[in-house]
Structure formats: C-alpha cells, structure tokens
Amino acid sequence: FIPPPWCAMLRSFAVRSLCDLPKVLSVGAVARAFATKGPQPLDHTKLTIRKATTHKPIPPLEKMKFGHNFSDHMLQVPWNQESGWGIPSITPLENLSLHPAVTSLHYGLETFEGMKAYKDAQGHVRLFRPDKNMLRMCTSNGRLYLPTFDTKEFLECIKELLRLEDRWIPYEDGYSLYIRPTTISTEPRLGVGPASNALLYVILSPVGPYYAEPLTLLADPTYVRAWPGGTGDYKVGGNYAGTILPQVEAGKQGFGQILWLFGEEDNLTEVGTMNIFVHWTNENGEEELITPPLSDGTILPGVTRMSVLELANTWEGFVAREKRINMKQVIKAVQENRIHEIFGAGTAAIVSAVKGIFYKGKEYTIPLDKKDPKQAMGPVGRRLKRELLDIQYGRTPHPWSVLVQGDQ
Known about the structure:
By secondary structure, the chain is of the alpha+beta class.
C-alpha cells in the first residue's frame, strides 16, 4: 500500500501526463520498496486457477447489449492492511459475499477501470495501452485511500484470465471483450474512514459498438458532473451515480447524451462518459482540434483522449491541443460556420460524432461532414476511429498494441 505522499505524487503526474510518469517513477518499484517487510505485494506467480465445470453459451453478435453478458470466470485479489495482498485467484464467475456494513456500499469507496481485449486476423489477443489503465487505477485508488499495487503484476494476472477466456473474445471488427477491473472496500464498519480490507477483482463482458448513430446533446448547466478539488479526474463510482438522473431526463426529451458544463461561462467539460473534442477554426483563423485541459481536476484523463491528441499531432493541417472552450464560443463559431465537427472519445465508444447541441431553449446544428452530408461522422473523427481500430486490432503495428503472449 503506497502511503499518501506517494499517492499525491502519482496523482500530480497522472493528471498532467500519464506518458511521462514511467520515466520518473515506477509504481511497481515503489510498491515493492514499501513491501519488502510486512505487507505482501501483489504477486502474479502465486495465481491459482479453478476452472468452471460448465460453460455458458456466447450470445450472437446481433444480440450483444453493452455490459449485459459476462464470461465464465473472474479474477479476485484480497487485500488487508496488515498482511498486504493475498493470493490472486481465477474462479468461476460468482456472486460476492459482503457484510451489509461494508464501506463501499455506504460511502462509495470504489474505483474501476474500462479496457478492452481484441483479436487480430491471426487470432492473437491484444490489449490497447493497458499500462495507462493500470496507472490510472492506482491513482484512483490512492485518491480514495484504497490500496495501490504493482501494475505489472496485476496486468499479468489479467492476461492469464484472458488466456482462459479466449473463446469470449470476438473476432469481428468493432467487437471486443470489455475488461472491468474494480476495487472495493470490504471493511465492515459504519463510519467514514480508510479501509483496512479491500477486494480487487476483474470481470469480462463481450461487447459491440456503443453509439451507432450521431448524438444530439443536451447542454444544461443545472447539473454539474465534477468540480475543482473533487474526484472528477479519477475513475470512481461516485462520479457516475449523480449523472443518471440528468441522463434519464435528457433521454425523455429525445437527447442522446448530456454535454456537461462548468463555471460561470459554461465551459465544456465532457460529453456523457466521454472526453469531448472540437475541430474548428478559431477566431484568429487557426484550424485546431481542441479538448478541455486537465488542469482543474474536472476532466477524466482518458486513455483514448490521450491517444487522440498524440495521433492527431502527427498529422498535418491543424494543431491538436488542450484548450478551454465555452458555450458562447461554440455558438459564435456555429453561427460563423467555423465548427467543422465535434465528437466524444472514450474506451467504450472509441469516437462518437455529435450532430447537435440544445442549449437554453435552442438547438445548434453541428456539421458531420461539410463535403459529404451522407457521412455519419466528420473526416477527422472517421480517420481517428479508423487509425485507432487498426492499432487495436493489430492491423497497424504500434507499441500501443500489446500482445497477450501464450494466448490459445
């Protein structure tokens, strides 16, 4: 368990640049340094496997609903403040047995990650930048004073689970096996305080495309997703519970998602559970692809967000950068025909186009492709999605695509 000063250090690096952190600090090295005596570190070589005796049928692709089907097995690793990490185990998927007073149920001591496994044309299993997800989970755990772990060791456990569940990973393009690592406090106590017992576990779910059609967004400042100094830049369950009511209300009005705003100027922050990108020509005549900065703690540092910025900065024709943008600027740009396209980016959806924004009683049309109105996504969004998919499925060799060695 990495003490608070190290957690603060991890957070500061993660929010600014997940890419730079490994050059400065190895999460695994720090965890091992603190675990040489006393609490035990997470160790993938101790992993035990108990296979299911029966196997569920895999649903047809056309009937796959995101997050509704689960594979045959799960991974679990218990943690105790005194003894450290217990023995990792892969078991048949089963219900958890929890005391009704566990603090994860009462006070939201829970974090999670979202990542995917893909199959390439040769049938090999691949992961997309899994080290970034592992690092982000450590920073999220640190923010809630939950135990951190050796990221490489935990990733090896996940790979073993994927090898066992190979048949659940779809071959078809656009389909994948969603991986949900989760940490919960299992401390049976009423009262707000640090957990002395926790459970790290992983479940798997085969999934297909998330948003099939372009979205019309409701931009309503009545509800706020996150605020400076809170937990908006961490992947914790509490961030999402408060978004459900606004999403339901938006859906009843016919909108596909919420455009989350913040501040007196109604700054754009996120779209649904995705990071938002605006491709426009600014008032100085410069063509940009912009996304809100991570500096105030209201934006989740998405792995897809990071990848979009890095990919787009290798292209010519515009600059990709972090930059604040508010609704007044968006409306002015729409009226002056300077908006080229807007889209959300995230693990589940990859890239999802926006076709309209409803704000203060008026809907503003967002172009998809000015040159080809038949397209369901703009040229930048299409190219980004294609290049990301090509990397994820191994069609384009890239260090971001990590082979799960020993897959069957």
